[in-house]
């Protein structure tokens, strides 16, 4: 039994005495006392009121103390960034956002990130010692183990850039990096579907991608590229050249830039995806039909995804999802027609509820998951132990 | 710290004394002694020679004892069944096989299963008390939590049949049921790719299906239908009616019966898939081309699977894989052309090495995984504890 196991026991928030912990775990009392001390020093556990009296001195109670430390979750989009300060239960304490072009490069963007972490800590009257970790989502493929973006198409200057290293020069805490769709899946699941173990979040915006949670775990795949929906080949995209260099990709047919281009050809004045959404909201028939058709095209690939992965919830998010029912209806139409009855019997296909905050909340969840992981607690415990021994 | 944690520590096979176990875990010596006793009674741990002398009486050593108990793994195919008796390390002690038509119904097929379990135990001079669990793979969708087949297309009489209940009337041990492709994935991984965490096994035979291991865990999805490659829509199958009732499924185009029908149209005398393989082996050009084309069609869907799941190994198995390089070459051709460079950079697409034994070995692995799981050990420990208290 390690210190992290003791913490797992206390994580439910119920206060317990040292004697109760010794009884439940079978650990020697002295061992329990030492490990509780370590957890208190780590800020994860705190004394809690007084234990029920057993006649003599009341025994002390201890419980998980989620408010003692904080994380920052950051979502970097193509043109916009958002950040939240959260405690270890995921409760949001402060937030910030800015227009920010990811193509302006890592120095500029990460400068905003570190300034914003400072600002959020100050806002909640926290100092550096309270900060436990930082989670960051980036709009491109990320090698999760090193936190480096790999050939990200819309992020010039970021290829294999040491993002954690840069941030850690200012904040010497664990920095976890993932791609934006993965953290959106985490954020939506934690906020809306905490008991769902098989959930796929599909982002439809400048690109199209998916974050896949299977068996309760975010699945990144062997190289971290799992969920790449956008570059699946669809027949209707035959002959269309994609920004990836290949032909026939779903993204070249159904992502926001493709829709905007098609509407321009039809005479509409649209520069980007958000204007497509504006047209749909204004009831423009051509735009509504184009978005519905994009939904059907996306639905072809989602039907395959449902056959292969068998999720119980598919969440549609991203800027184009803001067009409301048109996109969703097109996706549903094809999936319910094409996928196996057993796989769709209990399948729900829904719009993102968390919306624009899914990314930053998910990045915070990624950071919290790391801080409270057995591995991180053991490492931190060993460091505290070494300090005490000096 | 529970009894299962103590077992996890001992699972590496290295012998340890009670004192060493107490030191590593922080458990009281009396607790360690009691839990080691429980593990010995469960047959999971056994005394091991003598510990190094510390001057007085030599302390006893204990270690994981994989030979003390056995499991049976059974693979039921459409027309053939195979079974292995294995110890808790997965080492095969005895095996059996028979021609057996799954369509003859559950009573007949499970009668063979229970007779065979008896026979294998006798062969290895084991009695019922040695049998820890039975794993069974079936050629159709299975609800993993209950072990019941759900609308299995080639298994008349099996729909929602209580397979574990039937087997347990003769053998009162845990009985784990899964579909055949899932257990083949487990079997191939354990035997050939023990360190690979992201592996997909694709079976190409009468049907086409995949067993998906992501992040080291077999992924069954929300309803247990994950990996259903065969009913993904492919454009070249437009207009072809599938046995599932839908149109345009991959299976209707590229599985063994479709290939046999196409070769018959071309004038060849083929009744089933194994004769297609015979023709390919005999160098029949039409058959070779047909199998290669089937490989390309399957490759279209595998390319999507690689984009979505990002495995590092894709294993091609099943009867049609015995046609050798033709099928594999067709699949590789399309996947390496279509999937993202980052996803295919380290991707290996290979033929099954374990072949026909993958299923029964995987079923044994499924049974062993259950027996050695923390949950099963805690349940068994509690039962032993209750017995001792009487």
UniProtKB/TrEMBL annotation, chains A, B:
The keyword Transmembrane helix does not apply. GO terms for molecular function: kinase activity. It comes from the Bacteria. Keywords: Kinase, Transferase. Gene3D superfamilies: 3.30.420.40, Winged helix-like DNA-binding domain superfamily/Winged helix DNA-binding domain. InterPro entries: ATPase_NBD (IPR043129), ROK (IPR000600), ROK_cs (IPR049874), WH-like_DNA-bd_sf (IPR036388), WH_DNA-bd_sf (IPR036390). Transmembrane segments: none annotated. It holds the Pfam family ROK. Belongs to the ROK (NagC/XylR) family. PANTHER family: GLUCOKINASE, ROK (REPRESSOR, ORF, KINASE) FAMILY. This is COG1940: Transcriptional regulator/sugar kinase. It comes from uncultured Nocardioidaceae bacterium. The lineage of its organism: Bacteria, Bacillati, Actinomycetota, Actinomycetes, Propionibacteriales.
């Amino acid at each position: 039994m390690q210190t992290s196991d003791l913490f797992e026991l206390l994580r439910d928030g119920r206060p317990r005495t040292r004697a109760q912990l010794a009884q439940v775990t079978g650990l020697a009392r002295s061992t329990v006392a030492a490990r509780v001390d370590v957890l208190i020093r780590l800020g994860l556990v705190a004394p809690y009121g007084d234990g029920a009296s057993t006649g003599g001195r009341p025994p002390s109670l201890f419980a998980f103390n989620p408010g003692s430390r904080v994380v920052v979750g950051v979502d970097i989009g193509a043109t916009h960034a958002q950040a939240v300060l959260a405690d270890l239960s995921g409760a949001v304490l402060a937030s910030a956002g800015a227009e920010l072009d990811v193509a302006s490069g890592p120095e500029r963007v990460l400068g905003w990130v570190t300034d914003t972490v400072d600002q959020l800590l100050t806002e909640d009257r926290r100092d550096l010692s309270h900060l436990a970790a930082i989670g960051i989502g980036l709009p491109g493929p990320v090698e999760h183990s090193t936190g480096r973006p790999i050939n990200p198409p819309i992020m010039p200057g970021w290829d294999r850039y040491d993002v954690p290293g840069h941030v850690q020069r200012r904040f010497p805490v664990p920095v976890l990096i993932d791609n934006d769709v993965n953290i959106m899946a985490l954020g939506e699941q934690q906020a809306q579907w905490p008991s769902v173990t098989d959930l796929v979040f599909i982002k439809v915006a400048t690109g199209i991608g998916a974050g896949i949670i299977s068996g309760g775990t975010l699945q990144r795949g062997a190289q971290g590229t799992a969920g790449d929906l956008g570059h699946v080949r669809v027949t209707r995209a035959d002959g269309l050249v994609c920004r990836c260099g290949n032909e026939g990709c779903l993204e070249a047919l159904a992502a926001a830039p493709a829709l905007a281009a098609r509407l321009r050809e039809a005479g509409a004045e649209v520069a980007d995806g958000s204007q497509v959404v504006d047209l749909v909201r204004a009831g423009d028939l051509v735009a509504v039909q184009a978005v519905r058709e994009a939904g059907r095209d996306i639905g072809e690939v989602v039907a395959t995804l449902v056959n292969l992965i068998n999720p119980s919830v598919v969440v549609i998010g991203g800027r184009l999802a803001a067009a409301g029912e048109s996109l969703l209806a097109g996706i549903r139409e094809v999936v319910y027609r094409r996928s196996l009855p057993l796989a769709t019997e209990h399948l729900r296909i829904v719009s993102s509820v968390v919306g624009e905050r899914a990314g930053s909340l998910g990045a915070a969840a990624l950071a919290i998951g790391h801080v409270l992981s057995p591995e991180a607690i053991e490492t931190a415990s060993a460091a505290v132990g070494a300090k005490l021994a000096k």
